[in-house]
């Protein structure tokens, strides 16, 4: 338990350092890419090149991803300042979200299946 | 900053999360989404006690501190799935790109037809991407982070509830295609549903979620303005 907690803590520090590096690089290179995406790509490159061993971040990553949903709760609470918008356009927004999700899923599913069939007749 | 209030808010958020997570894990129904239920509970409680978002903000900032490192942690599942990814590189990349562009275009065109403001449209743009990345894309584009977060959660629910039936109606049977479709549109929640269908579908959901995030982050600054006035 305690060993695990220490492991999670230092592995999270490592993830945090790569995150800060991502944020720094985006700023220094003036990229229109979120810093956290840059950090994720950077971490993928570090793993793929063997500089970082998966075991170094496995426990910390596992913990953060298992409780990923938790971080979204405080952000979503910010929605309470949008009461008027939800009352005014709530139904329209729901219709848009539904239409857009279904269109995107259908296009991805159908196009992937067609491309797969073409390659494996 | 009021320290008692701060501590109470953190405990309240943690408690709401743990309780709704247990509820979801027991019944596994997509409508029992922990983020959705916890958010509603906290907002209702704040409203009932006359507290405002400003009171909640210090606790919010402290609790989202680890979101950056958590996003970086997404590199690990992507790394573990790199073989599946390289085996199906062409269908994966083109399918995810087509789906991401379609879902953004549909939302923005429908939003314009229904006369929504540009700020709302920009917040809608990245809603098919996992929250930490969607929020950043939205902020960079000029949208609102909280609004985007809510759209992302709603999209996750919609896609994971209606997605599998829609794909069956469209005769999409391949687990690779189904997993990619669910992950592209409904990120983590779609991936969770794909994982219930099969291991391959689940792995593809995770891959799609990561690629859709990177792809959307790269194209959104140029693509979204095309749909504004």
Automatic annotation (TrEMBL), chain A:
Domain of life, source organism: Bacteria
Keyword Transmembrane: yes
Record PANTHER family: HOLIN-LIKE PROTEIN CIDA, HOLIN-LIKE PROTEIN CIDA-RELATED
Keywords assigned by UniProt, alphabetized: Cell membrane, Membrane, Transmembrane, Transmembrane helix
Subcellular location as annotated: Cell membrane
TM spans (from-to): 12-31, 37-56, 68-86, 92-115
Membrane-topology annotation of the record: Multi-pass membrane protein
InterPro entries, per the entry: LrgA/CidA (IPR005538)
Pfam families membership: LrgA (PF03788)
Protein name: CidA/LrgA family protein
Taxonomic placement: Bacteria, Pseudomonadati, Thermodesulfobacteriota, Desulfuromonadia, Geobacterales
TrEMBL record, chain B:
Cross-referenced InterPro entries: CidB/LrgB
Entry's localization field: Membrane
Membrane topology qualifier: Multi-pass membrane protein
Matches recorded under Pfam families: LrgB (PF04172)
Keyword Transferase part of the UniProt annotation: no
Lineage top rank: taxon: Bacteria
Transmembrane segments: 34-53, 62-80, 92-114, 147-167, 203-224
Keywords, alphabetical: Membrane, Transmembrane, Transmembrane helix
PANTHER family: PLASTIDAL GLYCOLATE_GLYCERATE TRANSLOCATOR 1, CHLOROPLASTIC (PTHR30249:SF0), PUTATIVE SEROTONIN TRANSPORTER (PTHR30249)
Protein name (database record): LrgB family protein
Source organism (scientific name): Geomonas subterranea
Lineage: Bacteria, Pseudomonadati, Thermodesulfobacteriota, Desulfuromonadia, Geobacterales
